Amino acid sequence: METGSPDQSPSVRKAVLILSFIAFVIGNCGLPLLTRLYFIHGGNRIWLTSCLLSAGWPFILVVMIVTLYYRRTTMGDSTAKLFNMKPRLIFASIFVGILTGAGNYLYAYGISKLPVSTSVLVIASQLAFTSGFAFLLVKQKFSPFSINAVVLLTIGSGVLALHTNSDRPDGESKREYLMGFVMTLGASALWGFILPLIELTYQKAKQVIDFPLVMEIQLYINLFATLFGTVGMLINNDFKAISREARNFDLGETKYYIVLVCTGMLSQFFAIGLGGIIFCASSLLSGIIIAVLLPVTEVLAIILYKEKFQAEKAVALVLSLWGFVSFFYGEIKHSQDTKESLPAEMEVPLNHG
């Protein structure tokens, strides 16, 4: 990854990381709840839902315009441009966008069949996939603690798989529920590949990667993910069904469209946060944050949608939390060991006077 932009300064990167984290939390926790709300109250268009998971991409364009204005006026960068991507990076972003569109479909299918409190536990397994692909693609290093976390998360998802009938929604067949589980696991695996792939794209860009360029990459990714979903909607005649579905929506026609618009907006909070976190830290950290937010989303689903919380979910949740604690303890210990092993001449003095 090439450097040299003002956006690479520690203070700016810290601010970007904090704002990205806030956006990521809002998108990651709100998106599954709102998507499930659509399906609970009469929505059944999976391709429409998958398209909405990226269709808010014009919001990223607004962020890019605001960032450009800030760079030109406050930072005095008169050479700043709105679009800066070279063809190599554009093609890479298009490829990631198509994969994202496929992942969105798998996710939408899964959440249409599974309670949120179950689907988020299955999605937690993405950390295992992210870890594996991060090792292969970006040479991510692991400690025994991070390996332990991956194993625990994998076992937690396996516990859920052994009890696929316990929280099956009323009126849903065992086959539909099982397909939802498999599709959610597929989405988890695909996203586990996409996250390190985005980081690899940054590394191989052969141009300076700054926050505006990160947003431009996310713009292309979400644009082509939307095009992927739009093709599915056309084939499935979803556009013709929207008005009819809105009239029959349990919460009313107006709220139907509000749900669709808010879903598109929340998806872009997720996308912007994701791009910023990978830019400032790593794809593995983004995967960890997704997993760490699992208990928050699960508790909200149980409170808002009165979902069941059986013993296997409790076991899976405990294993997941155990895995998170193990990972973070390992990261803290690694940081301390690294600091202690630095030669004295490499340490930054506290007093320069």
TrEMBL record:
Q: Does the keyword Transport apply?
A: yes
- Entry-linked InterPro entries: EmrE-like, PUP_plant
Kindly indicate whether the keyword Metal-binding belongs to this entry: no
What Pfam families does the record tag this protein with? PUNUT
**SUPFAM superfamilies found in the cross-reference section:** Multidrug resistance efflux transporter EmrE
Could you state a single Gene Ontology molecular function term?
A: purine nucleoside transmembrane transporter activity
UniProt record similarity statement: Belongs to the purine permeases (TC 2.A.7.14) family.
Question: What name does UniProt use for this protein?
Answer: Probable purine permease
Q: Taxonomic classification, please?
A: Eukaryota, Viridiplantae, Streptophyta, Embryophyta, Tracheophyta
